[in-house]
Amino acid sequence: MLSKKLFVIFLTFCLIGYALCEEDKNAPKDMKGEECEKTAGTATSWLVVLMVIPSLLNVASVILLIFSMVLIRRLKSVVEAIASSTHWLTRTAIRVGLGPTAKKALIEYAKGKPEFKRLLG
């Protein structure tokens, strides 16, 4: 895929150079080469700028996408751990069955843990 892109870039440079360096029949013979080189140089620099900047933005987007995927995978394991802990806290509250005092004790315990603070609000 990269070789195809490089081939297209090479052909683009060749075609632009050929189109810009076509001899003007009205220009004096001594000015034809200088004008062609000047125009080709300007077009080449603009072509490089117009190809490099979007490519860099695409690479940055891919890097951000990969970074986001890694963070989402890490978040999945954290969410599973919180859900499991919440499940065990619920089972403990049901088994204790002491009513409001057991519930208060579990809520106070959960407030002491940073991962449960978000669940309690």
TrEMBL record:
This is Uncharacterized protein. It comes from Panagrolaimus sp. ES5. The lineage of its organism: Eukaryota, Metazoa, Ecdysozoa, Nematoda, Chromadorea. It comes from the Eukaryota.
